[in-house]
Amino acid sequence: MMVTMPKRYPPEVREKAVRLALDRLDEYGSAYAAAHAVGPMVDVHPETLRVWIVKALQQGVPSVAAAGELAATERAELDRLRKENRELKQANDILKLASAFFARELDPRHH
């Protein structure tokens, strides 16, 4: 059985990952869900990020909402922009897949 050493992350990576997750915590509803969504984007293992999030919350690191409550109109705009961002990312992923497919189909070496 091979035992691997845990990966060491620089402090700035940890801070960025935790901040991104905390900023989206209300969107995902739990540290687990936020860690699994944000972790791959910042190349941090989700369980590692989840532990960091829990520690930050226990130490009283404020989330964006706690730092200054948003007005109802700001909250609605933020929610709308987050939804639009998710939809654009999904469309971008679909376009990337389609372009890879067509590039392969048009490649003369493919036939």
What descriptors fit this protein?
111 residues, mainly alpha, Arc Repressor Mutant, subunit A, 2 domains, 6 helices, Transposase
Word description of this protein:
- This protein is mostly helical and 111 residues long.
- It has two domains: 10-68, Winged helix-like DNA-binding domain superfamily/Winged helix DNA-binding domain (Arc Repressor Mutant, subunit A); 70-111.
- It is 69% helix and 0% strand.
- One of its GO terms (biological process) is DNA transposition.
- Residues 64-98 form a coiled coil.
SSE map:
Blueprint: H1 11-23, H2 25-28, H3 31-38, H4 46-58, H5 64-67, H6 72-106
Helix pairs in contact: 1-3, 1-4, 3-4
Query: What's the CATH H-level superfamily name of the largest domain?
Result: Winged helix-like DNA-binding domain superfamily/Winged helix DNA-binding domain
Order of helices and strands: HHHHHH
- Architecture per CATH nomenclature, i.e. the level-2 architecture of the largest domain: Orthogonal Bundle
Derived structural class: mainly alpha
Describe the global form: flat
Look at the structure and give the CATH class of the largest domain.
Mainly Alpha
In short:
The chain has helices spanning 11-23, 25-28, 31-38, 46-58, 64-67, 72-106.
